[in-house]
Every structure is written in structure tokens, then in C-alpha cells.
Amino acid sequence: MSKIKILIADDHRVVIQGIKSAFLEHLEFEVVGEALDGLQAVEMTRSLKPEIIIMDISMPNLSGIEATKIIKQDMPETCIIIYTMHSDKEFVIDLFKAGISAYVLKDDPLQDLILAVKAVMGGGTYFSTMAPTILTRHMMEMEEKYIVRDSFDDLSQREHEVFLLLAGGKSIKETGDQLSISPKTVESHKYNLMKKLEVTSIVDLTKMAIRKNLIKA
């Protein structure tokens, strides 16, 4: 049975040796290459065609992030496992978008890296305990960002009352008389509510009120 080929990319030889030692008892895997920077990782991936790359982030010449993007673009079938000290949200999200299969922290037990490799070869993914939390928070932030807030909800009770009267055809004076406030106060409310609603005329207010079924056309 052919072994699963693994390429290790890390600028610290002691880390590479530690990873290699961890795989010695797992005969189904074979470390076929050792890259000391991102550029070497790209070149060796092209020549050795490993199934899995264990990739650090901070490396000279070309970072693990850039190397990952190049490799996934040129050889999308290659599975990349990030093995790093970095738990920054930006790193996790950027690499997740690039198509990595796993994200393991060097602070985690080395056994987690073995589990990650096995999970990836089984068609799954593996993320350090912090990664799901970061990704979930990011998705929630994106959802909140794209929720369209109805600016009509930002009107105060008085502004809402002025809106309905002006949109319904009442004049400034008539609105003031009905609400028992001065025309100057009505003008102030009118200015504020039009700014909140991002409209420039009474006609726009009327159209908005009709669209919301607050008044009849």
C-alpha cells in the first residue's frame, strides 16, 4: 500500500525534526520533503506532489499564508494543515478563506497534529479549539454587517408623530397646533427626522409613508 506523502514547511529545523519523530510510528505516512521557507514549500509541492503539507505561517521569503494561497490555486487537491503559534483572528479567517483543511496551534499537544492529519486524509477537517470560536464570531459579525437596519426605527416618538402629520399633508403650523408645539419645534423635528431617513423633501416623506402603509395614497 502506498504511503501518504507529507511535506513539512517550517523555518525551524527543531520543529521539523519534532514533527518527523511524531510520525515515525505511523507507517501509513511518509515525510518526503522539508521546506525552510514559503518559497521552498511552493517549489517542493510542485515537484514532490505531497498529499498533505504541514505549514507554518511566519517564514522568510514567502509567508505561509501566501504560500498556501499559491498552492491552493495551482494544486487545489493538496491538503494544507497550518501548524503555528499564531491564533490571531485575521490569520485564521484569511487561511480559512484560502482553503486550508486544518489549523493546529504549536501550544497544543503534538498528538493533535497527528489527529489533524488523519482527519484530513479521511476527508474531514480539524481545527484547534480556538479556531471554531473565532470563525463563529466572524460569521456573526458578517451577518450583523449585512443586516439592513430600517432607519424608520430610529425615530423618536415625537419625530414619528411629526412624520405622519407632514407626510399626510399637514402644514408646519397645522402640525404644531395638533401636537401643541411651536412651528419652530416642528421644524426642528422635521430636520432631524429627514436626516435620519435620508430624504430631502415632504414628497419623499409621503412616498415612504405610503410604502409602509402608514397613510393611503
Report on this structure.
- The protein has 217 residues and is of the alpha/beta class.
- The protein has two domains: 4-145, Rossmann fold; 151-211, Winged helix-like DNA-binding domain superfamily/Winged helix DNA-binding domain (Arc Repressor Mutant, subunit A, Orthogonal Bundle).
- The protein is 53% helix and 13% strand.
- It contains ten helices and six strands; from the N terminus they run E-H-E-H-E-H-E-H-E-H-E-H-H-H-H-H.
- The protein has a six-stranded parallel β-sheet, sandwiched between helices.
- Helix 1 (13-23) links the parallel strand 1 and strand 2 (29-35).
- Helix 3 (64-74) runs parallel beside helix 4 (89-98), helix 7 (157-167) crosses helix 9 and helix 8 (172-179) packs across helix 9.
- The chain is rod-shaped and about 90 Å long.
